[in-house]
Amino acid sequence: MLLSMTGFGEARVQTETVAATVSVRAVNNRYLKVTARGTDPYPMLEAELEKVIRRFVRRGTLLLHIRVERQAEPTDAVLNTVALRAYLRQIREACEQAGTPEFAGPLLTGVLALPGVAPEVGRSGAPPEEEWAVVENTLEAALKKLDEMRRDEGRAMAAELLALHGLIGEHLGHIRTHLPVVTAVYRERILERVRQAVAGAGVAIQPEHLIREVALFADRTDVAEEATRLGSHLDQFAEVVRKGEEGAGRRLEFVVQEMGREANTLGSKAGDVTLSRMVVEIKATLEKIRELVLNVE
Predict the structure, then answer these.
(1) Per the domain annotation, does 186 fall within a domain?
(2) Which range, of 21-30, 64-73, 141-150, 283-292, averages the lowest pLDDT?
(3) Scanning 102, 198, 240, 268, which has its CA 20 to 30 A from the CA of 254?
């Protein structure tokens, strides 16, 4: 099954001591790139988080947002006593100098909210094992939801890719059917021109000259080999889409590139307006396929 590289997943796990919420957003990328934001220290643990992500995702840009709510502990409450004493002294002195010492009491009630008095306690380094286990489980749950969305979108993409594949197959079938007609039409056209050129001149048409000219044209415009290779690439493309194995996105990118190469050669050798129009339709369809394939993992 094909997997899309875009999607979203979110999960929350709560225990008696900690609650973790993880959201994952994924967009397409040729390689795997992980960016983590949220509660410390997890933005600094992208390498550890990536190990978990690689169990589910192989390519794409993933933005993680990790929020951890921890149960408060006595050691978490730490006051900056130096800053606190400085604020108290300055408030009292300012009120006395202003002749309003009675204002000191009300002002002192908000001293704990002043910058630097009660700083938030951050965490650095590795989190406790119990907390990491909760975050890891939450991340896995979010990745599973992301994977479900990617699979749903992958099924829709596979259906559209096969429909476009069928459209190219139809155009290629018309090209193969029309190839003999191109040579026959050219033979009649050149014969008519020669007849007009020698009319009344008493000059006989040499059949071998006409045959040689038609043969040269047929050789220049022979696209049977390119059509065969394009058909082979189409079969390979459909097989990769239907199997949806690991690395399908990269394989599809290569096959589409080869199909584009054959289509360009068909266009350059086409000696007929009808063939040229069919090739244009094939190339336009390949562009649609290429845009879809860029989003396949």
Answers:
(1) yes
(2) 64-73
(3) 268
pTM: 0.70
Q: How many separate domains does the chain show?
A: 2
DSSP the chain: ---BS-EEEEEEEE-SSEEEEEEEEEE--SSEEEEEEESTTGGG-HHHHHHHHTTT-SSEEEEEEEEEEEPP-GGG----HHHHHHHHHHHHHHHHHTT-GGGHHHHHTTGGGSTTTSPPPP--SSPPHHHHHHHHHHHHHHHHHHHHHHHHHHHHHHHHHHHHHHHHHHHHHHHHHHHHHHHHHHHHHHHHHHHHHHTTTTPPP-HHHHHHHHHHHHHHT--HHHHHHHHHHHHHHHHHHHH--TTHHHHHHHHHHHHHHHHHHHHHH--SHHHHHHHHHHHHHHHHHHHHHTTB-
Residue 237 lies in a domain: yes
Q: 194-236 pLDDT, tens per residue?
A: 566 555 555 555 666 556 655 555 555 566 778 888 999 999 9
Residues 96 and 227 in one domain: no
Spatial separation of the C-alpha atoms in residues 42 and 132, rounded to whole Å: 9
Domain housing 85? 79-113
